[in-house]
Specification:
- By secondary structure, the protein is mostly helical.
- It has a domain at 1-47.
- The protein is 42% helix and 8% strand.
- It has a three-stranded antiparallel β-sheet, with no helix packed on it.
Length: 153
């Protein structure tokens, strides 16, 4: 697990860049933040496993399979990879592509330029069914899409 952590830190998941810190406390803080990011990513992968290509039964099967033989995917994982769809018909993603899909939900701050000087409002983009389900799995609750109007610039 520790080797996988360092491979992930240096690989494409977390992208730890070269450190240019000259003080020990800054190097320690940088590594702490990297390990914290890995921990958050690990928990997200666990929660989002139904939306990912990951084998959800791997941990349960680990205790009963031969430790020397190569691991075989479960029938449910084979089905998920073959159909490329979840049970509810949404597409399966890799972790980076799912994060990219979740990243399209945003909050726009709009300013009215004609007539009402300084009037602004915020508007949320409508979540897709994939985003709704992923946010449910993560336990993230977003407010209903309502416009918030402010007269501050």
């Amino acid at each position: 697990m520790v080797e996988r952590l360092f491979r992930t830190l240096k690989g494409i998941d977390i992208l730890v860049r070269p450190m240019h810190h000259h003080q020990e406390k800054r190097v320690r803080a940088h590594l702490f933040l990297c390990v914290l990011a890995y921990d958050v990513a690990w928990h997200m992968r666990q929660a989002l496993a139904p939306r990912l290509f990951d084998d959800e039964e791997l941990e349960q099967r680990r205790h009963t399979r031969d430790p020397v033989a190569p691991a075989q995917p479960s029938p449910a994982a084979r089905q998920k990879k073959a159909s490329r769809l979840t049970v509810d018909g949404l597409p399966i993603h890799s972790f980076p592509t799912l994060l990219a899909a979740l990243g399209t939900r945003c909050r726009h701050r709009c300013r009215v330029t004609s007539g009402l000087d300084g009037l602004t409002f915020c508007q949320l983009t409508e979540p897709t069914p994939l985003q709704q389900r992923a946010f449910q799995l993560l336990g993230v609750v977003f407010p209903v899409n309502r416009n918030v109007i402010s007269t501050q610039p």
